[in-house]
Specification:
Elements: H1 2-91
Length: 92
């Protein structure tokens, strides 16, 4: 059979293996290039995650402080409401 293929058959096999090798090299280069573009995106995502975490922590702190302030104001208002009633009772 090799006599039927002759030198052209061998050339075709060499070309095929060279093409496969070239495609493999191109694929590796493409994957490396893709990984390089993917890395900054991951860094970007980490930066946004950090910003979001800080924003959420700030919102939670604001909510805690608001609750404490409202509680303090309610206590203060209740104590002031009770004092005038005592003052009026003393005057009579």
């Amino acid at each position: 059979m090799t006599s039927l293929l002759g030198s052209k058959g061998t050339e075709n096999l060499n070309e095929s293996s060279a093409m496969i090798e070239n495609q493999s090299r191109q694929r590796r280069e493409a994957e490396i290039a893709f990984d390089k573009t993917k890395s900054p995106r991951n860094a970007r995502d980490r930066a946004f995650d950090d910003i979001d975490a800080k924003r959420i922590a700030g919102e939670e702190k604001t909510a805690r402080l608001r609750e404490a302030r409202l509680s303090r104001q309610a206590t203060h208002k209740a104590s002031h409401m009770a004092k005038p009633a005592l003052k009026n009772a003393k005057r009579r």
